[in-house]
Design goal:
Length: 333
Amino acid sequence: MEFHGAGTDWTCDPAVQQAAGEIWKKSGNSPFNRYIFGQVWPDQAAAKAHDLIIAWRRARPDLVIAECSDLGAHLAAKVLDLPVFAADNGLGPVLLELWDTDIAPALTSLYKRHGQDTPVLPAMLTPAPVPWFYRTPPPAARAVRRTVAEFRTVIPERLDRSPSSRPLVYVSLGTLATAMPGLRAVVGSVYREILAALSGIDCDAIVSAGDLAQDLPSTDPSIEVVEHVPQPVLLRRVDLCVTHAGRASLLDAVQGTTPVLGMGVLADQPDNAAVFARRGLGRALELAARRGEIADAVTAVPGDSHYNDAMTAANAELSQLPPLDIMELRDRI
């Protein structure tokens, strides 16, 4: 697919990463969310909207599907009267929570400059049943079937293990937090607690830690620390997924019918972990949990058939969602 840049590449700005990490460390996740989604993203929407309006006037799209957090794309589509849907990348619940108090007020002057009314989120597309993650459904929400890229369904030969009587645990705390200097050390410490917990358990483990892997040497032959793995296919083979509870990772686990131990880090992740625990799809622990508590949870979840049964039912519900129909969406609005 042809790709064109628009707006500014602010997500990799060291100043933004430093500020966000410091707010999270000093004040917690809620102030972090208000800073990122109620201040930084609205501030960046103007440049994105400007570039897209110019581009779309030259080559007018038939349909816009933009991430729910892509506030500039939403505005550009509205200015040009284009059909637009917001794709829920996991942040939909966070945006709805902050919309009236933080996000919409921050966008109002930008919308007025473009002759637009009060900012509103476009109709939402979500790759999971809407009640899974939303207490109050967003307006005009539509659940669609989730697909996974084919290259992510092939497991590397070095990770293709023979069946064993020992449970196989997969661990990944994502890559977003490790990009923030203030959070990188925190996440590294959590990995070390998890590795210590796994070392005292009769299990095998694969730990995917991104570029933190080089700082997490394992002396236990039953624990392999790697940078990356094709997560969707691996989750069809393991007995437990220890995860930061990002939306994609949780849905990978559902499609692999693998119970989870959620340890949410930031943004939507802590709430996601709690949601899955309430639905009986695993357990949730605080990020500050120590190795003993982690070991108890890692030992308990794989042996409990209730979690596996709940995951099997959730996977069936997920697979029954209708596929994304681009032509139907284009004609709907």
